[in-house]
Write a structure and sequence with these properties.
Helix content: under 10%
Order of helices and strands: EEEEEEHEEEEEEEEEEEEE
Number of domains: 2
Number of strands: 19
Shape: globular
Strand content: 35-45%
Strand order of the largest sheet: 6-7-10-13-16-19
Amino acid sequence: MESSQMSSPRSVLNFSPFRFRSSRVASRGSSKAGSATNGFVHRLRIEPLEPRRMLTTYLIDSLADVANPDDDMLTLREALQAANYNVAYNEAPAGSATELDEIVFAPSLAGGTLAMTSGQFDVYGSTLIRGPEGGSVTIDAAGARRVFSVGTNVEAVISGLIITGGRPTSFGGAIRCSGGELTLVNSVITGNSAATYGGAISAKNSTVTI
């Protein structure tokens, strides 16, 4: 999957560019040299284009499972909150309502472990979650909760992660997908279980690609 290159990993491009259009009107009388050609004067006018909204790219630079507005660090939980509801949250800018947002772990986090201390990670907006380039990140639920829950009509792509330790009191130990589209790329799901069924993945009315 190709990702857009942006000026800042925490920025959103949302702009209204302009285009210039020339019009020709008949020239009457004398005019200054160069202002008329073949009896016509060229005039420029500015026309605004429609607003363009691009995807949001989040660069995760902390493996802490917190949402602290004062630490100047971006965590997975903060990025998902902003991407899910398309509203800025702490250090995370608002996600896109029309494009697949991209959450990427920084290269410095390769080989590290995100130890979950709060509830499951909800994916309610179409999102790509990708491990660091040249490595992976482990997300460990410590046998106390589910790791990911993918919502209805959501496209979720998970790449370069090791997902372990999921154990909810119902189903879908590592991932529950309810009416969405889930794609797993270069990822490992191991050491998860569920109280009922779907120790690794529970998918209802969903499409799962591995």
